[in-house]
Design a protein that fits this description.
Elements (H helix, E strand, L loop, with lengths): L3 H6 L2 H8 L3 E10 L2 E11 L4 E5 L6 H8 L7 E6 L2 E2 L3 H5 L1 E4 L11 H11 L4 H15 L14 H13 L5 E5 L7 H16 L3 E5 L3 H7 L2 E6 L2 E6 L1 H8 L4 E7 L7 E2 L7 E2 L6 E6 L2 H14 L4 E7 L3 H9 L6
Parallel strand pairs: 3-8, 3-9, 6-7, 7-8
Antiparallel strand pairs: 1-2, 1-4, 4-5, 9-10, 11-14, 11-15, 12-13
The structure holds adenosine-5'-triphosphate.
Length: 328
C-alpha cells in the first residue's frame, strides 16, 4: 500500500517512465517518391542513455530524426516515447528537438529568444522566468543576455539554439549535428552542457559527423547506411563484431611508394598510395604477422623506419562497415 506521501510522489507519468524505454522505434519506413530514405529501422534508446546515430551522407539520419521529432510523417512503422505514441501530448512534452539549422530570431536578444521558445513550450509566469534564468546560466551567456542573437558567434548561437530546445525539461533530447560549424572549444562546451543534462537523467540521441565526439560522448552507437541499421552497440561490441582482436598498423618507409604494395598476410590486398612514405594496414595476430609484414615490405625494396600499432577505433569500424569516410 502507498503511504500518503508516496502517493504524492509517484504519479502515473513516473510509472510510465520507470517501465518503458525513452524511445522505441519499430520497423520505420519513409519514402520520398521512389527514394526509400528509411527502410525498416528499429532500435531503442534506454532512459538516461546517450546514443549517436551515424551514417554516410544520405544514409537517412536527418529523415529519421525528423520523424522522431514529428516533423516528417513515416510511411509506416511506429515510434514511441516513454511507451506513448509520438502523436500523444505526453510524448510530445517529453521530447526536446534541436534542429541542425539554427532556429533563432536574430533581431531579438538571447533572453527574448529564450522567453519566446519557453512560451511556445507552454511555460508561463514564474516558471518561464526561472527556466530562462537557468538557460542563461547553463549556456554561460548571462552577461550577454540583452544582446541581439544576430550579433553572436556561431558557437554562442548553437548554445542558445540548444537551450531553446530543452527549456521545458524534456526526458529525451534529439540533436541533429549539434556542433556543426563551431570551433573545437565551443564543441567541448556544448558537450559539457549535454553531460550536465544527462547526469540529471535526460536521454540523448544525436547525429554527428565527428566520430571522436560519438566515441567519447555517447554510450551506444547506431550506424545507418542506405536507410538501414547496419550496426548497433557500444564501441567495444562493434569492434568485437567487425575487427575483433585486429590491430591497426602504420608502417613508415625509407622511400616514397612507387606503386601500391601487394603485401602478403594482411588481407588488405594492395596497400599504400604512390608517393607516400607510409601505409596503414591491419593484422590479426601481432605475434604471428608482424615479422612477416616487415619481411614482405623489405622484399619489395623498402626499409621500415618506424611502426605504430593501434587498437581499432570507431573510425576503423565505420570504414570497415560502410566503405566510406564520414564527411562534413
Ligand atoms: N524532402 C525530401 N524529398 C526527397 N528526397 C529526400 C528528402 N529528404 C531526404 N531525401 C532523400 O532521402 C535520403 C536520405 O536523406 P537524409 O537527409 O535523411 O540523409 P542524412 O543521412 O541525414 O544525410 P547527410 O549526412 O548528408 O545530412 C537521401 O537520398 C535524400 O536525398
Amino acid at each position: 500500500m502507498l503511504t500518503e506521501n508516496a502517493a504524492n510522489t509517484i504519479g502515473p507519468t513516473d510509472l510510465i517512465r520507470s517501465s518503458h524505454p525513452a524511445l522505441q522505434i519499430n520497423d520505420l519506413h519513409k519514402s520520398f517518391g521512389s527514394t526509400e530514405a528509411v527502410r525498416g529501422v528499429s532500435f531503442t534508446l534506454a532512459q538516461g542513455e546517450r546514443l549517436a546515430l551515424l551514417g554516410p551522407n544520405g544514409a537517412g539520419k536527418t529523415t529519421l530524426i525528423r520523424m522522431i521529432a514529428g516533423r516528417t510523417k513515416p510511411t509506416s512503422g511506429s515510434i514511441k516515447l516513454l511507451g506513448e505514441p509520438i502523436e500523444s501530448p505526453e510524448a510530445r512534452n517529453s521530447l526536446g528537438f534541436v534542429p541542425q539549422d539554427l532556429a533563432l530570431y536574430a533581431d531579438l536578444t538571447a533572453r527574448e529568444n529564450l522567453a519566446a521558445f519557453g512560451r511556445f513550450h507552454g511555460l508561463r509566469g514564474r516558471n518561464l522566468q526561472d527556466r530562462v534564468k537557468w538557460a542563461l546560466q547553463w549556456t554561460g551567456l548571462e552577461t550577454r543576455s540583452r544582446e541581439l542573437v544576430g550579433s553572436f558567434s556561431g558557437g554562442m548561437k548553437r548554445r542558445i539554439n540548444l537551450a531553446c530546445g530543452v527549456l521545458h525539461q524534456p526526458n529525451i533530447i534529439l540533436l541533429d549535428e549539434p556542433t556543426v560549424g563551431v570551433d573545437p572549444q565551443s564543441r567541448q562546451r556544448i558537450f559539457t552542457m549535454l553531460d550536465e543534462l544527462n547526469e540529471n537523467g535526460t536521454a540523448i540521441l544525436l547525429t554527428t559527423h565527428h566520430l571522436d565526439e560519438a566515441q567519447q560522448s555517447t554510450d551506444r552507437i547506431v550506424i545507418v547506411d542506405k536507410g538501414e541499421v547496419i550496426a548497433d552497440g557500444d564501441l567495444e561490441y562493434l569492434i568485437d563484431q567487425t575487427l575483433g582482436s585486429s590491430r591497426m598498423v602504420r608502417v613508415k618507409l625509407s622511400e616514397p611508394i612507387t606503386e601500391p604494395l601487394p603485401i602478403w598476410g594482411t588481407r588488405a590486398g594492395r596497400v599504400g598510395k604512390t608517393g607516400e612514405r607510409a601505409f596503414d594496414t591491419r593484422i590479426e595476430d601481432i605475434a604471428l604477422q608482424l615479422a612477416p609484414l616487415i619481411d614482405a615490405v623489405r622484399s619489395h625494396g623498402y626499409e621500415v623506419t618506424d611502426l605504430e600499432i593501434h587498437s581499432p577505433t570507431l573510425h576503423h569500424v565505420f570504414l570497415h562497415l560502410t566503405g566510406n569516410e564520414l564527411r562534413d
